[in-house]
Design brief:
Layout (H helix, E strand, L loop, with lengths): L1 E6 L6 H12 L2 E4 H8 L7 H8 L12 H8 L3 H28 L4 E5 L14 E6 L2 H12 L3 H10 L3 H7 L2 E4 L4 H12 L2
Parallel strand pairs: 1-3, 1-4, 2-3, 4-5
């Protein structure tokens, strides 16, 4: 089984790349954000720890964690963000490693991990290859405004918190330029998959 880690800046088109790889290569797609959300559900591994650290004010009426409220707390306080990361990141990685083991037994051919913090959390220890999905900043900004309704201020804040393009390029084995027509992106993916 080949394990590929995919990362890139916000708005670079990672979701479309993942969708293509799932369809074209029957790849199992693992998005670290989705794993984190699952682990924050009631009865799951991280739920109790988060509620005990951040209080019941972060809960919805039905007892589920309100990710918006939790986000407002941690993104204005680096210490609290660090606490949340210490709860979430090891648990997410453990879940992904167990998932990889299950897929390996099923003879899965490709397992794709998409994570914003792929490099920071040392997923290179798990992945056979690390891919950087690159896209011109102006295109990324346009996408984020039209698809998510983000303001320039929000985009600036997100982009400034992410790794620099130089680091992505240095640390990743494969660069996929998703700035042009998606057919061109598909050609690059196919070339990388056949190497």
């Amino acid at each position: 089984m080949k394990i590929i880690g995919i990362t890139g800046g916000v708005g670079s088109g990672k979701s479309r790349v993942l969708s293509y790889m799932k369809t074209k290569y029957n790849a199992v797609i693992c998005q670290a954000d989705h794993v984190a959300w699952k682990l924050q559900e009631q009865g799951q591994k991280c739920y109790t720890q988060i509620v005990s650290c951040f209080g019941e004010s972060i809960l919805n009426e039905d007892g589920t964690i309100n990710r918006g409220k939790l986000g407002q707390i941690v993104f204005t306080d680096t210490e609290k963000l660090s606490i949340l990361n210490q709860i979430m990141h090891p648990a997410v990685k453990e879940y992904i490693v167990e998932w990889i083991q299950r897929e390996s037994k099923k003879q899965t051919t490709y397992f794709i991990i998409e994570a914003a913090l792929l490099l920071e959390e040392n997923y290179n220890q798990i992945c056979d290859e690390m891919w950087y999905i690159y896209c011109d900043e102006n295109i990324r900004r346009d996408r984020l405004k039209s698809s998510r309704g983000y303001t320039d201020e929000k985009i600036d804040a997100i982009m400034s918190s992410q790794l620099s393009e130089d680091i992505f390029r240095k640390e990743c084995h494969v660069l996929i330029d998703n700035s042009a027509d998606f057919e061109d992106t598909c050609y690059q993916i196919e070339k990388a998959m056949n190497c």
